[in-house]
Fold:
Amino acid sequence: MPIVEIPAFTDNIIWGLQDGDHLLVVDPGEAAPVMRHLEREGLLLCGILITHHHADHVGGIGDLLAMAPLASLDIPIYGPSACLPHGVNTVVQEGDVVEFESMDIRLSVFAVPGHTEDHIAYFGFASDATPRLFCGDTLFAAGCGRLLGGTAAQLHSSLQRLAQLPPETVIYCAHEYTLGNLLFASHAHPGHEGIQTRLSEVRARRQEGRSTLPTLLSTERATNPFLWAANVSEFASIRAAKDVFRAP
Structure:
């Protein structure tokens, strides 16, 4: 099944899972890009997955549901309970499974707090047996989310959990932050060959206007310093350093 990248705002990514007729979107913070994609491809929105309550992840729900072709449909909107005021109509939590049988989609729900208290992620295997993770703002390419409601202990635990998924897992994070994250990683680990090589590759892609996402868990294990923290104290220290880092 094709998974398409729908850019929003300045660096958000709305991921769309589509078959010949339908589109399932993840974290539609902005409605207009999704509407344009639906119209251009001749697709019908069949569901929405939400990872957490921040406006740039839920802000487009109302406008999408108000679209003329969708207004009379009962579209499932999955997400944590904190997102009920933002349009979620089906609350999911750790251990739940989200299924779209017509699209052959079955995703397990993981609780991954830290960036926010309510953050969840969706994990499942595609028809080609490829594991895929939609992780919102918990894990980024070469980085991780800020602490905006959760704790360092929570986020460290969540990242360690995700790091144990199969190395071939394809990671669909919600922001194009890769270059900035690698600049910090290079600053924190200036002699690391893998980071330097990835930084060069990402610089070239961004200069050409190309996306750096999705990424692979094997790549993150090799070049993401936030996955290397041995304990909460070490993780909190590197997260605090990234918060104040300014690329030269």
About this structure: The chain has eight helices and 14 strands.
